[in-house]
TrEMBL record:
The active site is at 150 (proton donor/acceptor), 243 (proton donor/acceptor). It catalyses: 3-hydroxypyruvate = 2-hydroxy-3-oxopropanoate. It comes from Seriola dumerili. GO terms for molecular function: hydroxypyruvate isomerase activity. It comes from the Eukaryota. The keyword ATP-binding does not apply. GO terms for biological process: glyoxylate metabolic process. It is an enzyme of class 5 (isomerase). Keywords: Isomerase. Pfam families: AP_endonuc_2. Residues 25-259 form the Xylose isomerase-like TIM barrel domain. This is Putative hydroxypyruvate isomerase.
Amino acid sequence: MAPLKFCANISWLFTELQDFSHRIYAAAAAGFQAVEAAWLYDCELQELQRAREATGVDVVLINTPPGDVKAGDLGLGAIPGREAEFRQGLDLAVKYAKALDCKRIHLMAGRVPVGSHRTAVAKEMEAIFVQNLNYAADVLSKEGITGLIEPINTRITDPRYFLDSPHQAVNEQMSELFQDLFHWQIMDGNLTENIHKYFPMIGHVQIAQVPGRNEPDSAGELNYSYLFNTLETYDYQGYIGCEYKPLGSTQQGLGWIKDYWTHRK
């Protein structure tokens, strides 16, 4: 069985450094060969390119722009009346992805509008989401980029996020599905069976301990040694994004991955 491949989520790790390009250098120095990020759009693209080229680190995933964060947006893919903004954001994401040779973009669904009841708007939001996913699939296929969708738990992290379970996320329009083990455990549990059930669709995995969203080897519900072995058994070839909140400094919390690298080499 081939060892798993990990990437540092530089929106969560190495935040001791303000500049994202500096975080790329830090990730490379820590032994990571790849990084992912949420939103890099406030960063100078040329600086990011220079950091990627200097380190040889791959950028494997970015998100579509969130919209107006101050107004409460967290993605626009399923938001009625915001289709034009979603398309503009997709164009920006593609620009950054192409410049950084990134082959995957997370198409964020967004939140149920304030004042709306989830059940009352679910069908409309789903229809908008499918429409936008179809549009994105056409755009991304021409660029050799894959779109992904990610369920985000509504019990702890974001009560209003529209896409909140892997079962809801299954959609023939998308070729790949995010498996964020933190969110999946909170919403559904049953991780062994869900890995088996959805494995053919899984294009990216993210990890954090539950419920604190800290390092995988911190105290919590999940046995990551078992989960890593499970993914190895399935011969998972994609990346595993380290999207967690370090309990101390990022470097102090990397003992778990150094142990993995030592025992799998």
